[in-house]
Structure formats: C-alpha cells, structure tokens
Design a protein that fits this description.
- The complex is a heterotrimer of chains A (about 170), B (about 140) and C (about 400).
- Chain A is mainly β.
- Chain A has one domain.
- Chain A contains one helix and eleven strands, in the order E-H-E-E-E-E-E-E-E-E-E-E.
- In chain B, about 10% of the residues lie in helices and about 45% in strands.
- In chain B, the strands form two sheets. A five-stranded antiparallel beta sheet of chain B has the order 8-6-5-9-10, with no helix packed on it. A four-stranded mixed beta sheet of chain B has the order 4-2-3-7.
- Chain B is extended and about 70 Å long.
- Chain C has about 400 residues and is an alpha/beta fold.
- Chain C has one domain: Peroxisomal Thiolase, Chain A, domain 1 (3-Layer(aba) Sandwich), CATH 3.40.47.
- Chain C is built from 14 helices and twelve strands.
- In chain C, the strands form two sheets. A nine-stranded mixed beta sheet of chain C has the order 3-2-4-8-1-9-12-11-10. Chain C has a two-stranded antiparallel sheet with strand order 6-7.
- In chain C, strand 6 and strand 7 form a beta hairpin.
- The longest helix of chain C is centred in the N-terminal third of the chain and has 16 residues.
- The chains are: A mainly beta (about 170), B mainly beta (about 140), C alpha/beta (about 400).
- Chains in contact: A-B, A-C, B-C.
- At the B-C interface, strand 1 and helix 1 of B face helix 1 and strand 5 of C.
- Strand 7 of chain A pairs antiparallel with strand 6 of chain C.
- The complex binds zinc ion (2 copies).
- One zinc ion binds next to loops of chain B.
Chain lengths: ~170, ~140, ~400
C-alpha cells in the first residue's frame, strides 16, 4: 500500500453478535398489477387455447419468441402473428435445489431454456422439465409441452405444466 | 400492430414483492443511540468548519474529515424549528442552540398551542423502557417561558 | 476523439464482510476518505462525484444515490448515481472518465457502495424481481437459475468439465489470502468445490462468491493535475461498455458477445491490437468461477473454449504469463455488487503502482484491465489503465 494509507477501514459484525448491536427492522409488502401489454396479452390468451404464438419481423425474417410488438434489432414494429409448435429442444438445463429466498427445496426442480420449434433458431423461453430422470437430462434433447386441462388454464405461462421428453 | 379493442383481450398479472430489512445503526448511530439509552444527547463536532452534527456523523460533510470529537447537547436547550399535526399529534423538528441539524419528535400539547421558536426540552422514557432508539425520547415539552 | 487525457491518482477500499456495522453512508465515506488520502488531496479539490450502487432493495433505502450522497462526498457538487446492475462498479470510473475527459471536471471522485446485509432472510431474494413477471416469475425463478443455465451451456458447447471450472475458485480463494479486505480467503481443493452443496446444478456452494457489505473509490483527474501530484501517473487508456437483449432466453448463453463488443470499444481507444499480448494483468468479473473463464474469452484474452486450458496450465496464476484476478476476485475477496467491480479497478491501480504488496504479480506490468458484468446478465463494462 501507499505510504499515505496504513489500513483498510471497516468494523465487522459477526453473525452471532448481530443481537449485540442496535438494529432496526422493517418489512414491506409491495403489491403490483402489471399490464401484460399488447404482445403478451395475446400470447397469454393463446396459452389458454393451448397454443404458443410468436411475432414475425418481415425485415430480418425472424420469428420472435417471446412475442413483442417491436423488433429490437431492426427497431421497427413487427408485422404479424405466427403460431409455433409446442415442441422444442433443450438449449441448456439445470437442477435447482434452492428457492428464490435461498432456502432449500424439498424436491429439486429441473429447469431449462427451450428452443421452440417453428421460431427462429435459438428463440425460446424458460420452463420446467418433468417426467424425466436426472440421468436422462441432456442438452439438445427433444421435448414437448404438457398442458393443463383446458378448464384449468387461466392465461399464464403455468398453463403449460412442464415440458417432457418426446 | 392491431389495436386491442375488446376488454377481455387485455391481460394483467398480479403479484407482490414481500421484503424485510434489518438495518445496523452504524458507527455514529450505535454510539448516539447507546447514549440516548442513558438519557444523553450528544453531537459530533468538526472544529475546523465550526459544525456540530445532530444526529451525529463520523464525517464532516463540508471538509470530509473523520470526526472523533463529540459533545453533550443539553436536553433542555431545544427550540421548535417547525411543526405539523399528524393524526392529532404535533410532530416537531427540534433544533438545539449552537447545533446543526436537529431531531424529529412528538411535541406534548400544553395549554397554549405550539409556536415556532418556543423553547423545549427532551423528556426521556423511564430507564427500563428505553431501547436505544430515537423513541427513547418520549416527547418534547415546553420549558418555562 | 477530442478528449483530454485522464489519470488515476488514488484508491480506497473498506473491508468486505458479510455484515458491517457501518451504514452505507459511512462505508462510502471510509472508502472516499482513503482514496483522497492516498491521492494526497482534500474534498475541496474534487470538482464532481460519480456514485454507483446496485438495486435499492439490498440497502433497503429507496433513491439510494441520494441517501448515500453526504458520505460519498457529493454534497454541493455535480453528483450523480449510475447503475448498470453488477457492471456498475467498473461503469462508475468509466462515467468519471468522461467527466474529466470532456473538460467539465479536473478531479472526479468515483465511488461504489453496497450494503447487502440488511435484506432478510437472504440478499438473493432481491434478484427475484429482476425477472419477467409474465414469463419467468410464475415458474419460481431464482437468480442462480440463469447462471446455472449459462454455465451448463458453456460446458456443453466446449465439452468443459466441472473440475476444470472449479480450479478458478481454488485459485481465487488462495489469492485472497493476501488481500487485507478479503471475506472468504481459503486454501481449498478442486475436490472441495466438487463436494460442496449443490445449489442449482452445475453451480455448487464453492462455485459462488458470497454476498457482502463494502465500498471502494478511485480518484480520476486531468493529466495536468496528476503531474502535480505524482511522478508516475496511471493513465486511463480505454473504456468500453455494451449490452445484449433483455430477452435472455434468445441469447447465445455460451459466449458473452456483448463483452467482446465492450472490450473492442476499449481496445480501440487504447490502441490495443493484440489483447492477449498487450494486457499484462486483468481483473475479470468472477461472481461465479465459470464467469472468469467466460469473461476471459469475451475479452479476447483466450479463444472460445480455451480459458479452462490456460487455467489448468497455470497461465492465470499470479506468477503466470497472464495473471487473472490476483486480488482474489469476488470469489475470495467478496461480492458487494457495485463495490466488487470497484475493488477490481483498485487492484489494477495497486498493481500498476506496485502497491499490491504480497499480491503483486511476478511479471512487469504496464497495462491492466478491470471488467464487470451485470444487469440481466448481459451488460459488460471494461476499464483499461496504463503506466507510461
Ligand atoms: Zn427485425
Ligand atoms: Zn469540517
């Protein structure tokens, strides 16, 4: 270190001594109602119908999924709707042992980015994998959507329960 | 993009974000609150800028020096700098003679209504009820005119 | 470019710990005070201040930039907070650079702070709300998913083994033993990493850096001012920053193209044609061990898929041909988000001025690079410094 600086400042509180210092606690529960927007509203309605819909851009010729009203590359309005399949390939996957608050899950979750067939190569979304064992998991495996029964669908990404190997 | 005209074509998603925090009082805060618990108000001092900070800081915001000197602020040397009424209570910003900054607190209602400039003193809770928090000052009340 | 030359003349850093007594303002003050002392200047000589801090949710104070102001030395100065997620720590000196390069300021204080410990029960929880509320949150997404998915893709494309990646954690935690601020210095083995608790496979406990409290700061100034203060000023040679799509499931997760773009922007300014030869030491962002490798490739310090091999060959050790993260990185020193990037900038400054003590790399160093990464895992900031 420079001659001018002799030490690095700071006072650590070890976890067992947190109760020995004065601390104040607060909690907030922020509630939101998010508008789904033009593209996502249609996407959710189609999920309710048991179909996956994308948008296409006539300039770069891409089939965009998740659908959006603009092409981020050409930076112009997209041109129309396009149904894609409810099958795809696993782009990458992992096995989650923890929940969002860092607590341990009872049963691990298999999660994957799935490239959806019919969309431009590499276009896909995040979802869960089911009816598959840890050993069978592979990058590149073909999977298909397992839908909730029509009566239970509400227009949510969870209208697809998970994807399973096909 | 075609315009959405039917109400049932619009979707929304409801959710919530629950968060909790535990804040340390900090180096200056820890010392300040421990002193409040003892019924004392202290401020930190920068001699070169002639500033006295309340709540105390470990640094002078003007010259950015590390502050190690603290001094007592007599609990009866306050005056009402400004006040407002919230849910039937009077909340005052109390300043102290020769001190920069001030403390927020409840003002005990007297026979006369509150006025800017009146002299007040800090009234502490009973020793066993103090927690090392700003609320250890139960209220401010007007001192003899 | 019609810009003034900019120098770095001081650096300051607090301890990095899981929980500090200091408030965010106090941490900021300690880092700034130390940076001013090391530069030998006072706040009255500072013309402007750039502050960086990641999401407000950690500190639990909304409008954190405004909250931290007094401790950051910004009182009655041109002051702003910049925020690009995890990449903030290296973006702060980039922003300070244009304050000085433009001629608007002679001296600009760049400070980054993070106090993650207030958020209960775990700071990770704040990250849940960065994900899309329609596509991702309903699935129960956690921050670790995106890293695990990226790590898996990187491994799959190049045929990389978990053990090769674990070497990075071993190296960095070892390097951190010599860092006075380090939170998690340790002598561990590849086997220890492999056996550590799985979090989101392939990410295991010891693949991950810890959440921390801490702050860091550097002083940037004009060449003229620097020459008054020191015989050997350190020059800012190049800055770069770039971002990829927020539709992260549409990206090629195996390669950080956005970082290549950011690096090329910085190299162009610095006149660097062959980074592998011309960069002597680099602090690349390593919140996870695989990210060091990923980032070396994006920075063109290794070919695609080559970084694990260089690591195995010892090239990236402190006594190696291309030392990477001699500080101990985020894996060893700790990860107070914005402050962690700033720690890297400080380390390169210490290395170039021969103030790194036991951490000083063996080879002679002239040009060093600090890099950070963040937002929805698609932002990179790059800062190149040079000793004349
Ligand atoms: Zn397009
Ligand atoms: Zn002062």
């Amino acid at each position: 270190m420079s001659e001018r600086v002799k030490f690095f400042p700071g006072r650590e509180i070890r976890s067992r001594s947190i109760d020995e210092v004065l601390a104040s606690e607060y909690a907030a529960d922020l509630k939101y109602s998010w508008a789904s927007g033009a593209a996502m509203s249609r996407f959710l309605i189609e999920l309710k119908n048991g179909r996956i819909i994308a948008r296409k851009c006539n300039k770069c010729k891409r089939i965009l999924l998740p659908p959006r009203i603009f092409c981020e590359d050409c930076f112009r309005e997209t041109d129309g709707w396009f149904y894609v399949k409810d099958t795809g390939t696993v782009n990458t996957y992992s096995i989650s042992y923890v929940a969002a608050d860092a607590s341990r899950l009872k049963e691990p979750l298999f999660v994957a980015v799935i490239n959806i067939e019919g969309a431009t190569e590499g276009m896909g979304f995040l979802h869960l994998l089911g009816e598959v064992s840890e050993k069978e998991l592979k990058v590149g495996m073909r999977v298909g959507a397992v839908w909730k029964p029509e009566a239970e669908r509400i227009g949510s990404i969870l209208d697809i329960r998970y994807f399973k190997p096909i | 993009m075609e315009r959405i005209t039917e109400g049932d074509q619009i979707r929304r998603w409801n959710d919530h974000i629950p968060l909790q925090w535990k804040y340390t009082a900090g180096v200056a805060g820890e010392r300040f609150l421990q002193l409040l618990k003892q019924g004392k108000i202290q401020a930190s001092v920068c001699r070169s800028c002639n500033k006295t900070y309340l709540p105390p800081k470990i640094f002078c915001k003007e010259c950015f020096a590390q502050l190690s000197e603290w001094r007592d602020v007599p609990s009866d040397s306050g005056y009402v700098y400004s006040f407002t009424a919230v849910n039937g209570e009077i909340i005052a910003l109390v300043k102290f003679d020769g001190v920069d900054g001030g403390l927020l607190g409840r003002l005990r209602k007297g026979r006369e209504g509150p006025r800017i400039g009146i002299k007040v003193k800090a009234v502490f809770r009973r020793k066993e009820d103090r927690k090392g928090a700003l609320s250890d000052i139960e209220y401010f009340e007007r001192t003899g005119v | 470019m019609m810009v003034r030359k900019v120098c770095v003349i001081g650096a300051g850093l607090t301890l990095f710990r899981r929980r500090m007594l200091e408030t965010g303002k106090e941490l900021s003050f300690e880092a700034c005070r130390m940076a001013l002392d090391s530069a030998g200047i006072q706040r009255k000589e500072v013309d402007s201040v750039v502050m960086g801090s990641a999401p407000d949710a950690f500190d639990g104070v909304h409008m954190k930039g405004e909250y931290l102001l007094d401790g950051a030395g910004g009182y009655k100065r041109p002051y702003s907070r910049v925020y690009v997620g995890g990449a903030t720590g290296v973006y702060v000196p980039v922003s300070a650079w244009w304050h000085v390069a433009s001629g608007m300021s002679d001296v600009c204080l760049a400070v980054a702070e993070e106090k993650m410990s207030p958020l209960q029960p775990h700071p990770q929880y704040a990250f849940w709300s960065i994900f899309d509320h329609h596509m991702e949150r309903p699935l129960g997404v956690t921050l670790l998913w995106i890293f695990a998915l990226e790590m898996r893709r990187y491994m799959a494309v190049h045929g990389i083994k978990e053990e090769e990646i674990a070497q990075v954690s071993v190296k960095n935690k070892h390097n951190a033993i010599d860092h006075p601020c380090a939170q998690l210095p340790a002598e561990i083995t590849v086997e220890d990493v492999m056996k550590s608790e799985p979090m989101v496979w392939p990410v295991k406990r010891l693949d991950v850096s810890p959440p921390s409290d801490g702050a860091g700061a550097v002083i940037l100034c004009s060449e003229e001012f620097a020459k008054k203060m020191t015989k050997e000023p350190i020059y800012v040679a190049g800055c770069g920053w770039n971002i990829d799509s927020t539709y992260w499931t549409n990206r090629d997760l195996y390669y950080p193209q956005y970082l290549e773009n950011a690096a090329k922007m910085a190299y162009k300014q610095a006149g660097i044609a062959n980074p592998r030869k011309e960069i002597d030491v680099a602090e690349v962002y390593d919140p996870f061990d695989y990210k060091e490798l990923h980032h070396m490739e994006g920075l063109q310090l290794a070919k695609k898929g080559e970084a694990p091999k260089l690591t195995t060959a010892g090239v990236t050790q402190r006594n190696g041909e291309l030392p990477i993260n001699p500080s101990g990185g985020l894996l060893g020193v700790g990860n107070p988000i914005a402050a962690a990037g700033m720690m890297k900038v400080c380390e390169i400054y210490f290395q170039l001025t021969h103030q790194a003590g036991k951490r000083q790399v063996k080879k002679e160093v002239h040009t060093g690079l600090a890099q950070a990464w963040g937002d929805l895992m698609q932002y990179s900031s790059v800062f190149v410094m040079r000793r004349r």
